[in-house]
Amino acid sequence: MAAEKVDRRVRYTKRALTQALVRLVQERPVSKISVKELCERADVNRSTFYAHFRNPHDLLQSIENDALADLKAHLLADDKPRTASVVKVLEYAQDNAEVFLMLLEESDGGFQRQIMELAHLVDLQPSDRQGVSTPDSLEYMYLFAVSGALGMLSHWLEKGTPQSPDEMSDLLLRIIQHGIEERA
After folding, report:
1. Where are the alpha helices (DSSP H) in the chain?
2. Is 94 within 8 Å of 157 (Cβ atoms)?
3. Are 83 and 166 in contact (CB under 8 A)?
4. Is there a single domain that holds both residue 118 and residue 161?
5. pTM of the entire structure?
6. Most exposed among 45, 47, 76, 107, judged by the fewest C-beta atoms under 10 Å?
7. How many domains does the chain have?
8. Tens of pLDDT, residues 31-90
9. Is residue 183 part of a domain?
10. Which domain holds residue 31?
11. Could you tell me if residue 184 is inside a domain?
12. Domain holding 138: CATH number?
């Protein structure tokens, strides 16, 4: 029972620090955020912060690792078709919009690279309609598709997710598979 209590307190502390970091990053870059103001905003003692993290960048890295692990777990949870997997990613991003936006903006690029690697689990492969079959060409097409998908995700989250995850999934996959010239 004691371990469960500690675990719950640690989760609460991390959630409070995450929310505080999200709010502070809206005001200025993480490099300009002190541990003192982060702890004040989260209503957490500095000693508690230092028991878990070295500095605000370490907290950001921990949040990034947790988000990637959760996303991967969502993707590997069952063997669904590609459309369902994309919807799951979008639902997760929508449920964690503030954290996702912070990670997309504040990460050193590692979050985007990791998301691109996770995209292999979704099989976001563009169509090969023009018969481009060289490995280099297919790699460029894949990078273009995933980079575009990340741009769409970021824009969708910034707008407050006006379309449903199903609608965004349909649009995203249609663009990846058929290009932007095709009309719905």
Report:
1. 2-25, 35-42, 46-52, 56-76, 82-95, 97-106, 110-122, 135-158, 165-178
2. yes
3. no
4. yes
5. 0.80
6. 47
7. 2
8. 999 999 999 999 999 999 999 999 999 999 999 999 999 888 877 776 665 567 788 889
9. no
10. 2-53
11. no
12. 1.10.357.10
